[in-house]
Amino acid sequence: MSNAWASRRVREGLARGLGFAAVLVLAIVTGDMGKSLGQVVAVAGVAVAATLASLIPRPHWVRFAVPLAEAGAAAVIVIASPPGDRPSIIYLVVPPIVAALTLGIPGVSSTIALEVLILIVGTVIRVSEQLPVAIVDLVVALSLGAALGLGAVLTAHVRERTAPSRTDYDAARRLLTSLRDVARQLPGGLEETALAEAALGRLGDVLPHDRAEVFVRSESGALLPVARVPADASRDWEPTVHAGLWGQAWEAGVAVQRLGEMDGPELGSAMACAVIPLRLGDKRVGLVGLERAGGLWPVEDLAEGQLMADEAALRLDTARLFEEVRDLATLEERRRLAREIHDGIAQEVAGLGFLIDDALRGATDDGTRRDLERIREELTRIVTELRLSIFDLRTEVGAGIGEALSSHVRAVGAEAGLTVHLVLDEDASRLPPGVAPEILRIAQEAVANARRHAQARTLWVTYRVTEGDAFLRVADDGRGIPEGRGRPDSFGLQIMRERAARIGASLTVKRRSPSGTVVELSLQTTAAASAPAREGAP
Q1: Are 118 and 138 in contact (CB under 8 A)?
Q2: Looking at the domain assignment, is residue 16 inside a domain?
Q3: What residues does 229 pair with on adjacent strands?
Q4: Beta strand ranges found along 177-222 (DSSP E)
Q5: What is the model's pLDDT at position 220?
Q6: Is it true that the peptide bond before 514 is cis, omega within 30 degrees of 0?
Q7: Which of 21, 264, 284, 347 is buried deepest, with most CB atoms within 10 A?
Q8: At what angle do helices 105-125 and 65-80 cross, to 10 degrees?
Q9: Does residue 370 sit within a domain?
Q10: Across-strand partners of 510?
Q11: pLDDT at residue number 304
Q12: For residue 107, what pLDDT is reported?
């Protein structure tokens, strides 16, 4: 039970208690306690029943029930009492106050409207010589109830406006906590490719097909493939939201189908194809293409497939949001580490270099001077390493890593005096979530090894992405490593292998002829991927 819920129930109980006390005092002061005992008991029963009903958990859609029932009961008690002898009339203000505390303006309006209706109908039925007195009672009661109810609304509004607002970190913590709890309960996880493949599997039970593919729309508007069945399709579909069957499904927002292959003519074909939009409310987040031999699918099956696609759209969009949150968290942590290194150890090492410079200026012994110069050179190397480490940590990765890799390699080459040969070739296909950052970190580690340990003069870097398959090659002309060993004791190589295994890629480290080292990473997401070319590498 939350503190806010308990506080609200206390205020409701207090309002009802004060209302009943006012009825009791009025009956005693006017000397009508004996004649009005029935009203007092009835009001007490209403107050107790309403208080108990407020404590019982109830569905959200019946939250108006208790204040309205209380208002109706109070109005019936008043109208059933003789005009001029109505201490219960004061209790008419309680339901609007309670409704104001819990339901706001709609609650106040509803309770007052119900009281007005019952009192008017009752007054008309009981038309008598005392009619003027009844009308006065009615006007006074409703005016008092409306004034106090609206006053309670105003008080609640002022309290909310003046209360300390929750900070951004409070909101972020609540959202992240909810996300963590929900993610733990999801049966399919939040990996986009796995969710898309599972969606195709479910669609296959309703809409049998020979080939299917899921495309999601990127922020740039391109339709990027996420999952494909079978993985070794002999040709690629080129969907667009502006033309063809793809465009029809996108614009109409419903599944469409026709005879013929997806990219072929309709007439004389035994094939059938369909496109199902991935809908998230009024928004389209992607398309699913289906193709088979054997004629069109039944309309009712296509409608059921659309419902399944809508469910998949929610999962895929949630996975994308989760990926963005994860990437932002990782990026923020890397920035924090970069700041700490820059403001901490980097500044201290630089200060130590200034002290050695002062010692060098005052050194008179040649041996001491040579020792200090070697120390100064080592400090310079350490400062360079720290500077490059800070650059690595601040490097951001988007859907493709070509730009980030190019900036990193060129910066390292300029800093370390390396001649760099860079080949980048990225098509429009999208790597699975989380793959691009891992490939960039592997490339950074390979370049760092060449710079730190190999004493290389030249660096060759090749990176290609073709139809979702990635190939990375980092080669240098340094000292190299013994053939077949790959420096198994190297912590950096161990980290690279762990990163490659995490994304399902193969990593090889071998000696380059005549000298140097070659690091190659290959990630194949399709079985028909051809071996990547190695242009630009020695």
Answers
A1: no
A2: yes
A3: 212
A4: 211-217
A5: 58
A6: yes
A7: 284
A8: 30
A9: no
A10: 518
A11: 92
A12: 75
Query: Does residue 198 sit in the same domain as residue 285?
Result: yes
List CB contacts of 433: < 8 A, sequence separation 6 or more: 191, 192, 193, 319, 320, 323
Per-residue pLDDT tens digits for 304-344: 999 999 989 988 888 888 777 776 777 677 777 777 777 77
**Inter-axis angle of helices 366-394 and 435-452, to 10 degrees?**
170
Distance of alpha carbon 426 from alpha carbon 464, whole angstroms: 5
Residue 364 corresponds to which tokens in the numbers above? 């008179």
**In this structure, which amino acid lies at residue 504?**
G
Regions of the chain with pLDDT less than 50: 1, 129, 162, 399, 484-489, 526-537
| Helix, strand or coil, per DSSP, at residue 486 | coil
The pLDDT value recorded for residue 54 is: 76
* pLDDT for residue 353: 81
CATH of the domain at 462: 3.30.565.10
Cβ neighbourhood burial of 59 (10 Å; 0-12, 13-18, 19+): exposed
- Do residues 434 and 513 both lie within one domain? yes
Of 304, 322, 340, the residue that ends a domain is: 322
Q: Are residues 129 and 224 in the same domain?
A: no
β-pairing verdict for 223-229 and 211-217: antiparallel
- The whole-number pLDDT of residue 254 equals 92
- Which residue, among 65, 140, 68, 75, has the nearest Cα to 109 in the 3D structure? 68
| Residues 133, 201 within the same domain | no
How many domains in the chain?
3
Contact at 8 Å (CB) between 405 and 443?
A: yes
The verdict on pTM exceeding 0.90 is no
Instruction: List 216's β-bridge partners, or say none.
Output: 224, 286
pLDDT number for residue 526: 46
Task: Please check whether residue 443 is in contact with residue 400, taking contact to mean a CB–CB distance below 8 angstroms.
Answer: no
Closest CA to 95 of 118, 124, 70: 70
Q: Cα–Cα distances in Å, from 304 out to 207, 256, 283, 308, 324? A: 9, 13, 19, 6, 31
Q: Which of 186, 241, 254 is nearest to 215 (CA)?
A: 241
What does the pLDDT read at residue 206? 92
Query: Quick one: tokens of 20?
Result: 């009943």
The domain boundary, picked from 291, 322, 353, lies at: 322
Q: Considering only CA atoms, which of 18, 61, 62, 10 is closest in space to residue 43?
A: 18
Burial class (CB in 10 A: 0-12, 13-18, 19+), 416: buried
DSSP 341-385: HHHTHHHHHHHHHHHHHHHHHH--SHHHHHHHHHHHHHHHHHHHH
* Pair 158, 197 in one domain: no
Torsions phi, psi for 143 (to 5 deg):
-65, -45
User: Quick one: pLDDT at residue 129?
Assistant: 47
- What is residue 488's predicted lDDT score, i.e. its pLDDT? 45
First to last CA, the chain: 69
